[in-house]
Amino acid sequence: MNTNRLSSSWSRLAPDELRARQLRRLRDYLTQQVVPFSAHYRELFAQSGLDPASIRSFEDFAKLPFSSKRSLLDPEEGTPRTRDFVLVPDEATLARRPSTILGALRYGRSGMKDRLAREYRPILLTSTTGRSAEPVPFLYTQHDLDLLAVTGRRMMEICDSRADFRHFNLFPFAPHLAFWQAHYAGLGFNTFTLSTGGGKTMGTEGNVRLLGKLKPDALIGMPTFVYHLLSVAVEQGLDIPNLRRIVLGGEKVPDGMRRKLRALCSELGSGRVEVMATYGFTEAKMAWPECPARVSDEPTGYHLSPDLAFIEIIDPDTGVVLGDGKPGEIVFTPLDSRGSVVLRYRTGDLISGGLVHEACPACGRSVPRLLGNISRVSNVRRMQIGKIKGTLVNFNDLEHILDDLDAVATWQIELSKRNHDPLESDEIIVHVARSGRSSREEVTRLIEKRFLEATEIRPNRIEFHEAETLREMQGVGRLLKEEKIVDRRELASTSDGESLTPVPTS
Ligand SMILES: [Zn+2]
Question: What is the DSSP letter of 491?
Fold first, then answer.
């Protein structure tokens, strides 16, 4: 058994004690690090008349205004205000601190200087992946990379990996959290991890060859790419008897995808394979895993690291903080990060089952968990359908419907304007690659029926493609996030054409 810092100190606490510890840690972190050293938050606290030392409850903390993607950009130029969010220590302040003085006695002046450089000097950069918005860089110091190894090791432990497993990291080589989190998971857990770089670097062929040769025990990657890889492995009649774990990130993982992956694994001669999802985002600089679902096939929720992050769930319309188990938008605050730091950060991600504090029924850890499906606030779009103006359509629901259909291998939804005329009504085209033996007519009927049930709208067209063509269209292995919903309406119109009215999906 590996030693587990989380389980020894934080994962057996009663919810009240856990919250009390989080609050103390938050207050120390704000007082010692963020407010003195972050240009943006120093000003925001001053403007709000909030003294971090006087924070006695999470309600006090909720007086701090939210941050969001928009806060990270200059309002006029639209360029990232990266430096304003980085903790830049003031030497005079540091020199006065008892910890610095004691450190200098213990490690010598130059030793202490090195330690401070490891804590505060940015040495690694990841960035957001939005194609429409300006990418925003997030900086890591050595202190942050140490934490990335801690959250990585926890990911391995919670996913019940073994040190003697062979792990494949299939995320693309990129300045992106997913790749680095998986890489540091291998280092933090001290286990063999082969990073293939995904499809971009060695192609599907190269990846399949390595699968056949090294016969890994665990795969870590994006659902669409892992699915693609295993499908090709099945086509080639490969045997991967050792495969026990698939850990997914970068996209949401619907139940249908888990089922399809398990089916592929059984064709590859694997035994029981646990398929688990992780949730993370650039601004968090960490990701959180599910544990294996032992009690039922229900996903166990994302197991948070309560000593490193404080999560709030809010009503996306009013910003009011909601109680446990209530669906809403995920808001993130780090508790120990250096480098780039955001507080009360609105992720734009909705969680259907909210945040819960009771112990996990599968593994018994009492860390807080995010339960249910994650979807994007911005996937709720206003559509002009026929003569009806401005119908709100929740594309999160449609995604789940398509992913859950066993007759559908992969898909893409395209939104466009009829005849490419900006004044015309909107069109929904569903592009589909079939799986199994269902006919085109059967699949068409099935999709139309499910669309109507979920949204009371019908797609204008359903177009069938070969799996390979559709993968090209989605950018599998080429883009960092596969394009599942493509909005081409703005190409036809003169304005940006997109209404992002946030509404909760519960
Ligand atoms: Zn668990």
Answer: H
Where would I find the beta strands (DSSP E) of 56-133? 124-127
Locate 250 and state its tokens. 């970068």
Instruction: Give how far Cα 359 sits from Cα of 13, 157, 373, Å.
Output: 9, 16, 19
Q: What are phi and psi of 103, to 5 degrees?
A: -60, -40
- Token pair, residue 249, equals 């990130």
| C-alpha of residue 125 to centroid of ligand 1, in Å | 31
pTM (2 d.p.) = 0.83
Assess contact for 107 and 131: CB atoms under 8 A.
no
Whole-number Å distance, alpha carbon 250 to ligand 1 midpoint, is 20
| Residue 381 in tokens | 């779009």
* Helix orientation angle between 395-404 and 255-267, rounded to the nearest 10 degrees: 20
Query: How far is ligand 1, taken at its centre, from the CA of residue 362, in Å?
Result: 5
Q: How far is the CA of 501 from the centre of ligand 1 (A)?
A: 35
Compute the distance from residue 161 Cα to the ligand 1 centre, in Å.
13
Evaluated on CA atoms 440, 437, 428, 503, the torsion sign reads positive
Distance 491 CA to ligand 1 centre (A): 45
Cα 460 to ligand 1 centroid, rounded to whole Å: 43
Separation of CA 264 and ligand 1 centre (Å) = 25
| Chain position carrying tokens 């069938």 | 464
Q: Could you tell me whether strands 286-289 and 274-281 are parallel, antiparallel, or unpaired per DSSP bridges?
A: antiparallel
Least confident of 202-211, 266-275, 480-489: 480-489
H-type alpha helices, 312-439: 395-404
> Cα of 153 to ligand 1 centre, how many Å?
15
d(CA 238, CA 325): 43
Query: Residue 412, Cβ neighbours under 10 Å: how many?
Result: 22
Please, are residues 333 and 345 in contact by the beta-carbon 8 Å criterion? yes
Closest Cα partner for 343 from 50, 68, 39? 68
CA of 158 to the centre of ligand 1 (A): 7
* Dist. CA 183 → ligand 1 center (Å): 23
Q: How close is the Cα of 270 to the center of ligand 1, in Å?
A: 23
Q: Cα–Cα distance between 381 and 505 in angstroms, integer?
A: 12
Whether the per-residue pLDDT at 493 is higher than 70: the answer is no
- Written as six digits, the tokens of 93 are 């302040």
CB 33 within 8 A of CB 338: yes
**What whole-number distance in Å separates Cα of residue 40 and Cα of residue 32?**
15
- pLDDT, tens digit, 9 for 90 and up, residues 175-201: 999 999 999 999 999 999 999 999 888
Sign for the pseudo-dihedral over CA of 75, 78, 79, 82:
positive
Dist. CA 126 → ligand 1 center (Å): 29
* 442-451: average pLDDT: 90
CA of 110 to the centre of ligand 1 (A): 44
